[in-house]
Amino acid sequence: MSKDTSRILEKIKALEEEKARLLPLRIEEIVNVLQSNGGLTLDNRLLAGLAIYANNPANAASGLLIELMQLGQTKIPSSKLPSNKLHSNKLRGGSKSSNTNTTLQSVAVKEEKAHG
Fold first, then answer.
1. Is residue 54 classed exposed, middle or buried when 0-12, 13-18 and 19+ CB atoms within 10 A define those classes?
2. pLDDT of res. 80
3. What is the pLDDT along the chain (116 residues), one digit of tens a residue?
4. Would 109 be classed as within a structural domain?
5. Could you give the CA distance from residue 5 to residue 13 in angstroms, rounded to a whole number?
6. How far apart are CA 106 and CA 108, in angstroms?
7. pLDDT value of position 81
8. Total structural domains in the chain?
9. Are 73 and 79 in contact (CB under 8 A)?
């Protein structure tokens, strides 16, 4: 191998080691941010525990599983506040007719005031 190839391979190895060292720290940082902001975090152990609990026939009538099934069948709302949806719709130009109507009304009021 040439010097350049060996240097590139060494850099790749060093970067992979750094990635392996930093990735768990980054994941922990993301989890901490989610938890501090009231987010829901599930790790693999928690999901595995839920799967084991759900597969146990003795837990078939569990209130937790019944509630999770009901929650899974509900429709997730697109936004918490309807006003946000209307506001974002106006920004995208989704309500042109109401903007035109408002403009026509304001022009009519100005003409009315001008004529007396």
1. middle
2. 61
3. 688 999 999 999 999 999 999 999 998 898 888 888 877 667 778 888 888 998 988 988 889 889 888 888 888 777 665 554 455 444 455 444 444 444 455 555 555 555 55
4. yes
5. 12
6. 5
7. 57
8. 1
9. no
84 within some domain: yes
User: What type of residue is 6?
Assistant: S
Whether residue 80 contacts residue 69, with contact meaning beta carbons closer than 8 Å, is answered with: no
pLDDT score of 22: 94
Cα 58–Cα 64–Cα 69 angle in degrees, nearest 5: 100
Among 113, 61, 78, CA closest to 53 = 61
What lies within 8 Å, CB to CB, of 34 at 6+ separation is: 40, 41
* DSSP state letter for 39: -
Is there a domain that residue 55 lies in?
A: no
**Which one-letter amino acid corresponds to residue 57?**
P
Determine the structural domain holding residue 84 and report its residue range.
79-116
| Predicted pLDDT at 100 | 47
Residue 99 maps to a domain: yes
